[in-house]
Amino acid sequence: MNQTKVKRESLAFKVGHYLFIIVMIFIFLLPLYWMLTTSIKTRTDIIHWPPIYIPKVIDFEGYVRVWEHQNIPAFYLNTIIVNISAALLAVAFGIPGAYAASRYKFWQKDNIMFTILSVRFLPPATALLPIFILFKWLHLIDHPLVLIIIYAGVNLPLVVWVLKSFFDEIPLAMEESYLLDGHSRLKSFFKIIIPLGAPGIAAMFMICIFLTWGEFLFAIVLTFSQKAQTLPVGTANLEGDIGVLWNQIAACGVMAAIPIILIIVFFQKYLVRGFSFGILK
Amino acid sequence: MRNEKLTGLLLIMPAFIYLMFFLIVYPFGYNLYQSLFEFSMLTGVSKFVFFNNFIGLLRNPQFLNSLKISGIIAFLALAIETVLGLLIAMALNRQFKGRTLARILLILPLGTIPVINGYIFSLLFFPEASVVDHMLNMLGIINGHIPWLREPGLARFVVVLMDVWQWTPFMVLILMAGLSAIPESYYELARLDDMSSWKIFWRITLPKLKFPLTLAMLIRSMDLLKFFDGVFSMTKGGPQSATETASYYIYRTGFSTFNIGFASAASVTLWAIIWIIAFVVIGKVFLSKEAKV
C-alpha cells in the first residue's frame, strides 16, 4: 500500500522526518530525564553550572530519605486507596447511567447528558470552598473518604460518556434475542452488557485512576496529615523552611509516575476514547 | 413504552444526582449565598452586603489581572499545542522504523504529576544554573543567562512551556486517531491528480480533521482555564502576579487571606463565564451530528 508513497518521498524528506521525530523525542524526554537523574544526584550536583548531565556519583539518598523519614509510604498507600476507591465508585454510578444513555430514550435526555458533561469543564477552584465547608460539617476533612467522593465525582461525567460509547457497540440484537428467550431486562444487563462491556469498563477504571492520581488542588485543601494526604501533596510538603529538597522531590516524582506511565503504555488504545468522552475511537 | 422511559430516567439518576449535589447545585448555591456577605476574620461576623463583593471584584485589579493571565496562558499554550500536536501527529502517522517506540516515548509526559513537574521545570530554568540556558549557549543561540523565572513575561512563558510539554501528547493522540480515520483512497486520488503535499494538507487532511481538532482544542482550552498546580509549585503566581491564574487567585483569597465573600464572588463569576462558553460551544460540539456517528 505504501510502496508508491515511499518511492515518491525524497531522501531529504525522509531525513528531515526522522530528524524532527528525534528532536521531539529529545525535547519531550528531557524533563523526564532530568527528574530521573536529579533523584540520584548528590545535593551539590543538582544546581550546578555548567549543569551535570550524567551524574558522576550515584546517590540514592533521596529515595532512602523519603521512604524512611518523610512518610512517603503512607502517602503512597493513601494515593492507591483513594484512587482505586474513587474509580470503583465512579464506575459503579457510571455503569447504570451509561446503560441508560445507550439504550433508553428518556425525558430531557440531551439536557441531562449535557449537564453531566459540563461538570468536567468547571474549574475545581470554584467548588473548593463550599466542598471544604460541607466536609468540615460532616467531620470528614482529612479523611480519605473526602477525596474518594470528590474524585469519583470529577471522573463520573467521563465514565458515563465513555461507557455509553462502549455499550453502543454491543449489538442490540444480542440483547433482544436474550429477552425473547424470556429473560428479564435486568438479567440481560448482567449476562450480555456487563461481560461484553468488560474490557471497556476495565479500561475506564484504569483511566479514572490515571486522571486523578496527580490531583493537587482538592487534596491540598481537604487533607492535612498523613492520614489522608496523597503523593502530590506529600511531595509539595518537601518544599519546606530549609529550602527545596530537590532530590527527594524528584525521587517522589519518579515513584509516583511509574504506575501511571504503565497505565498509559498498556491502555494506550483506550486513551483516545477516554480523552474524547468516547466520541473518537 | 412509558415504562421504558421511566427506567432510563431512573438508571441515570444516581450519576446525575451525585454530580448535581456535590459539584453543581450545592457548590454554586453556597458560593452565591456567601458572595452576598462580608466575613470579618476579626469579629467572626458575616455582614450582608448584597452585590458589593461583585462590584468590588469587577474593580479589583488583581482579579481582573488573574482572568487576563488565565486567558493569555490558555491562548498561548493552546496555539503551541495545536500546531506542535498536529506536526507530531502527522509525522507519527507515516510508516517508519521505530514508530511504535517513538509513539510511546512521546506520550510519556502524560504520566507525570503536574505539581511535581513544576519543581522539575524550576530546575530546568533555574536562575544562573539553567539546563536550558546551557543548551542554548552550546547551540550558539544565546550568550550567558536568561532570567527565565524572574522576568514576568518569561516566567509566564515557562508556565506555558510546562503545559505544552505535558499536554501536547494529548493533542497528538487525538489527532492521530483523526488522521487514521481518513481513508487512504483520498490520498491516492489526490496523488493521481498530482496535488502538492501542501495542497493535500489544506484540501484533505485539515478539513477531515476539523471535528477531532475542534474537540481537542475545546477540551484543552477548558482545562487550561483551570490552570493551578504548576503555578503553585513553580512561581507561586509571581513574579509580580505575572502567572497568577484565576484558579490560583481564588485559592489565595479563599484559603490564605480568608476573604470568603470575595472568593465566592470570584467563583460565581468564573463559573458563569465557563457556563456561557459551555452552552454556546460545548453543547453544539458534543451533541452534534458528527459526534453521534
Q: Please tell me the CATH architecture of the largest domain in chain A by its name.
A: Orthogonal Bundle
Number of strands of chain B: 2
Categorize the overall geometry of chain A.
Answer: globular
Low-confidence stretches of chain B: none
Order of helices and strands of chain A: HHHHHHHHHHHHEEHH
Give the SSE map.
The complex is a heterodimer of chains A (281) and B (293).
Chain A (H helix, E strand, L loop, with lengths): L2 H6 L2 H29 L3 H4 L14 H9 L2 H32 L5 H11 L4 H14 L6 H25 L3 H9 L4 H28 L4 H6 L8 H6 L2 E2 L2 E2 L1 H21 L1 H8 L6
Antiparallel strand pairs in A: 1-2
Helix pairs in contact in A: 2-13, 4-13, 5-8, 5-10, 6-8, 8-10, 9-10
Chain B lengths: L1 H33 L2 E3 L6 E3 L3 H8 L1 H32 L6 H9 L6 H11 L6 H8 L13 H29 L3 H9 L4 H12 L1 H15 L4 H6 L11 H10 L4 H27 L2 H4 L1
Antiparallel strand pairs in B: 1-2
Helix pairs in contact in B: 1-13, 2-13, 3-7, 3-10, 3-12, 5-7, 7-10, 10-13, 12-13
Based on the model shown, name its key terms.
heterodimer, A: 281 residues, MetI-like fold, two-stranded antiparallel ribbon, 1% strand, globular, B: mainly alpha, flat
Description:
The complex is a heterodimer of chains A (281) and B (293). With 281 residues, chain A is mainly alpha-helical. Helices cover 74% and strands 1% of the residues of chain A. A two-stranded antiparallel sheet of chain A has the order 1-2. In chain A, helix 5 (72-103) runs antiparallel to helix 10, helix 6 (109-119) crosses helix 8 and helix 9 packs antiparallel against helix 10 (185-212). The longest helix of chain A has 32 residues, at 72-103. By secondary structure, chain B is mainly alpha-helical. In chain B, helix 1 packs antiparallel against helix 13 (260-286) and helix 7 (152-180) packs antiparallel against helix 10.
In short:
The complex is a heterodimer of chains A (281) and B (293). Chain A is mostly helical and 281 residues long.
